[in-house]
Every structure is written in structure tokens, then in C-alpha cells.
């Protein structure tokens, strides 16, 4: 079942349950996926679906940190709920140890030796971890392993 079909089914369930917050979040996700489908001109592949979900999740996490700094507890609570809903559609996330192992293997594969190889390593490792790990975690892991 595609992401759009799943979102449509869950949207109907949220309407029936009168869960306004979940319904609103699902509508935003569905709109983002539909817009991406229209701009690409074809049905979304699973990688493209994950890309849309990752982008939406990142936007919410960035907003969350800004609202926390601004001391807006009402909005923070709402965003945390939205983040949980978006994460429920994401593929399972890898642990730090799994990310570290994949990054170490990639460094060995491309023979990276110093922090100046950071761009090469990130370019090689991100397609492997797309949607399965947070970019900040991957970034810090690459920096740690290259500096040692």
C-alpha cells in the first residue's frame, strides 16, 4: 500500500474518531506527498515517500527547538504530538551503534583517512541511511570517526 493510500485510510479513521490533531497532521502529510507527486509527474517511489516524510519530520523538529527557545509550551506540546504522528509513518530508525557500524564500513570502503574526506564519506553514506537515521546523528558520527 502506498503512502497516499495509507494516509487516506488513516485520515478517514481520524475523522471518525474526531481526532482533530491527528487529522490535521495527516492532511498536511497527504498534501506534501501529493504536491511531490505532482511536481515529479509520477507516483512516488518508496524512497521518494521516505524523502517527503523525512522533510516534514525535519521541519517539525526544527520548529520544535525554536518554540522551546521562545517558551511556547502550548505549541511545543502540539508539535511533539505531530512529530510522533509523522514518525509512525517513517521506516524503523537505526540505533547509534548500527549507524556507527555502517559509517565505519563506508569509511573503509572509500579509504577515507582524514576530516578532509568528510564530504566524500557523507556523499557515500547518506544514500545507505536515507530515512533510517537522523542526518545530525550521521554527521556527528562521521566527524567522530574521521577525527580518530
Automatic annotation (TrEMBL):
SUPFAM superfamilies: GatB/YqeY motif (SSF89095). It comes from the Bacteria. Pfam families: YqeY (PF09424). This is GatB Yqey domain-containing protein. It comes from Ligilactobacillus acidipiscis DSM 15836.
